[in-house]
TrEMBL record:
Biological or metabolic pathway of the protein: Cofactor biosynthesis; ubiquinone biosynthesis
Keyword set includes Transferase: yes
Family of this protein: Belongs to the methyltransferase superfamily. UbiG/COQ3 family.
Root EC class: transferase
Function: O-methyltransferase that catalyzes the 2 O-methylation steps in the ubiquinone biosynthetic pathway.
EC annotation from Swiss-Prot or TrEMBL: 2.1.1.222, 2.1.1.64
InterPro entries in the cross-refs: SAM-dependent_MTases_sf, UbiG_MeTrfase
Catalytic activity: a 3-(all-trans-polyprenyl)benzene-1,2-diol + S-adenosyl-L-methionine = a 2-methoxy-6-(all-trans-polyprenyl)phenol + S-adenosyl-L-homocysteine + H(+); a 3-demethylubiquinol + S-adenosyl-L-methionine = a ubiquinol + S-adenosyl-L-homocysteine + H(+)
Origin: domain of life: Bacteria
Keyword field: Methyltransferase, S-adenosyl-L-methionine, Transferase, Ubiquinone, Ubiquinone biosynthesis
Protein name, UniProt field: Ubiquinone biosynthesis O-methyltransferase
Molecular function GO labels: 2-polyprenyl-6-hydroxyphenol methylase activity; 3-demethylubiquinol 3-O-methyltransferase activity; polyprenyldihydroxybenzoate methyltransferase activity
Residues that coordinate or bind S-adenosyl-L-methionine: R39, G59, D80, M125
Amino acid sequence: MDASLNADAAELAKFSELAHRWWDPESEFRPLHQINPLRLGWIESLTGPLQGRTVLDVGCGGGILAEAMARQGAQVLGIDLADKALKVAQLHALEQGVQGLEYRLVSVEALAAEQAARYDVVTCMEMLEHVPDPASVVRACAALVKPGGWVFFSTLNRNPKSFLFAIVGAEYVLRLLPRGTHEYGKFIRPSELASACRQAGLALHATRGLAYNPLTRRYWLSDDTSVNYLFATRKEAA
């Protein structure tokens, strides 16, 4: 791997090994399938209908969110550096006959140099905690969105509660995720992400937390950002 890439080879290998299970709703990716309607609904509640919009999904993995946005009528590009996951995404879209959806093996920084101010909406979900330099990703996302456009992030807060819930609870007790999915030291406090967004020219517009009930196995959006949280930001209009 190019040493200049803002990527962790071990992280890419980890998700590549599981690539064939991306679209199994009972697999390790079950949480992503369950929260996807929540994410999509929140995005459209802020942007309005995605129909006809140009959308970029950064760190798209197997394409769960990218495909859902394309089904809403958006023109979507999903990018990732995990080749096996992209192949799974491409195959699933082909099998399902999804229109308006493309995938590319490219870093967000490289794409920003190529397609500045190209997209109406940029999403970067569950990715920032897996890269060496999250602020670099934030800057690239800001460069890729059009003036007045939206950039959405989701990641994990860094505090004792998130360690207990997202690692001990989710990976070891409830086994919602494979052990080793997350590294606590890479979690990002909302204040840190907000600072990176401001420095990149993105104004924070809304935040939401993601809650889970292990008894009902149900997720919902909440005001509690202490563990999982989402940011909606906008780039200043020209």
